[in-house]
Write a sequence for this structure.
């Protein structure tokens, strides 16, 4: 019986945007910071754990955050950096399993029942994934390990930050019984108020309600509540829809104007692209180079070839040629990216043979 259970990991980055800022600005480490607008209508996107001690939370108005934590430092968000970290994390996930379902930039479900490492212990995999994330991005993540999505997500929150929790089938009921009703994933403010109205304050009291009562009160979702409180959740981890491209980008720490500096960054991007292609195992026939200028202008140059972009030498030669085409003298750049697309099994045949002139 027990080997019938699925093995699901939920990974969630710790104070994601704030951690990226503290990583890139050492002077902010150990300090209460908030990422977001500090002005009149500014809102906290997220706060460092140092700021959370003062009660600063996501979605809180900036003025309230300042009231609670007068020393708080506001930092502007840099979405391109968060996206880049998110891409790297996804690369790591995909090197463990193809069944990866991202929920946002910083969290995902992984089904590791079978996995690319042939590792039977999901908690061991979770440890390795978190270590890989730290090695590759300098950021910490927390993980929850269980036999379904609901419990895995619940578990990832248990030992935050930089921790992990396993909920085994025989432990699930204990976790659920004491869980406050508003902590049930999918139960919002309105629902939890309605729940409290009928005497449901936690898992234990929710379990006392019959399926009929719950469906009667909450409609279809009542059935979901009935089951999750018993540790039953059959939702599959649905992998990303078929990807149309595999790409890697890098934002520079400073601006770069010289071609040798750009080439160095490009080499790094090529390495990462090769790593990702290895995990995807599909043949793409178009290579696209992207540059972003310091003025935020985006330049794309691409080449479609007769053979697929898989081998290092071919990718290098083509990428260097594209870079020569794309770069203008006297312009400085802040980002370089490389992407392979036009995959063979995409409904088209990949490279389309030009029609023969008869
Ligand atoms: P979360 O995972 O909810 O929060 P977090 O990663 O900052 O902190 P932790 O997981 O350790 O509790 O959200 C991930 C990122 O999404 C967060 O860093 C910023 C962004 N975000 C918003 O922009 N607005 C919001 O209201 C929330 C909740 C998150
Ligand atoms: Mg998070």
């Amino acid at each position: 019986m027990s080997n019938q259970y699925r093995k699901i990991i939920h990974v969630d980055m710790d104070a994601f945007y704030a951690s990226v800022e503290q990583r890139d600005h050492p002077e902010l480490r150990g300090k209460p910071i908030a990422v977001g607008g500090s002005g009149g209508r500014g809102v906290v996107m997220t706060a460092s754990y140092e700021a959370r001690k003062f009660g600063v939370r996501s979605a809180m108005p900036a003025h309230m955050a300042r009231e609670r934590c007068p020393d708080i430092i506001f930092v502007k968000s840099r979405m391109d950096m968060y996206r880049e970290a998110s891409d790297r994390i996804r690369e790591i996930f995909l090197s463990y399993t193809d069944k990866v379902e991202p929920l946002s930039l910083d969290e995902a479900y992984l089904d590791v029942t079978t996995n690319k490492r042939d590792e039977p212990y999901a908690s061991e995999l979770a440890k390795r994934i978190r270590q890989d994330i730290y090695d590759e991005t300098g950021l910490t993540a927390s993980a929850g390990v269980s036999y379904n999505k609901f419990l895995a997500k619940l578990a990832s929150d248990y030992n935050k930050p930089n921790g992990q929790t396993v909920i085994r089938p025989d432990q699930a009921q204990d976790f659920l019984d004491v869980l406050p009703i508003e902590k049930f994933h999918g139960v919002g403010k309105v629902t939890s108020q309605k729940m409290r109205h009928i005497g449901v304050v936690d898992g234990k009291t929710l379990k006392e309600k019959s399926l009929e009562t719950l469906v009667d009160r909450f409609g279809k979702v009542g059935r979901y509540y009935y089951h999750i409180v018993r540790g039953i959740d059959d939702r599959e981890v649905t992998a990303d829809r078929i990807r149309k491209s595999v790409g890697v980008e890098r934002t520079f720490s400073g601006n770069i104007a010289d071609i040798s500096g750009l080439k160095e960054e490009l080499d790094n991007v090529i390495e990462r692209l090769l790593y990702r292609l290895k995990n995807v195992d599909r043949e793409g026939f178009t290579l696209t180079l992207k540059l972003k200028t310091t003025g935020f202008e985006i330049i794309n140059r691409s080449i479609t070839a007769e053979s697929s972009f898989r081998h290092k030498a071919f990718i290098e030669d083509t990428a260097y040629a594209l870079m020569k085409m794309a770069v203008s003298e006297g312009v400085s750049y802040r980002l370089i990216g490389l992407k392979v697309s036009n995959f063979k099994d995409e409904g088209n045949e990949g490279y389309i043979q030009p029609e023969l002139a008869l």
In short: Confidence is low (pLDDT under 50) at residues 347-358. The longest strand covers residues 245-256. The pocket of thymidine-5'-triphosphate (ligand 1) is lined by residues 12-17, 45-46, 58-59, 106-107, 160-161 (CB under 6 Å).
